[in-house]
What we know:
Layout: H1 4-20, H2 27-41, H3 50-65, H4 69-82, H5 85-99, H6 107-119
Amino acid sequence: MAHVSALADLALLTIVMAHGTDADLDPRETQILVQQLSLLSSSDGGAASGADLSDLVETAVEAYGELSVRGLDDVVGRLGQALSPEDLARAHAALAAVADADGHVHTMEAAFLRHVAQAWGL
């Protein structure tokens, strides 16, 4: 997943998954969020630095505060067009890992995962 813009979009989706679906940001979700972004950034051999990941997450948090449902669909669509099927599967697995980080996948998290999977043809 070489594209920084795709990684930024994925960071935004992970924030939506971690907080937007249940209005709670568990520290375990934050830890898994950063871990998953790191894994995805290194999937093409070019790992992002800790500072780069922090910047991505900070930008994602700012964007999250202004995100609409339509904007969220745009992000999902952009990623669906920008990433290979393999990267989409990895990105979806990362979202699922964030959802399960607190030991419970909430109903809204499961619904969001299904929506993304359908949009990405998974």
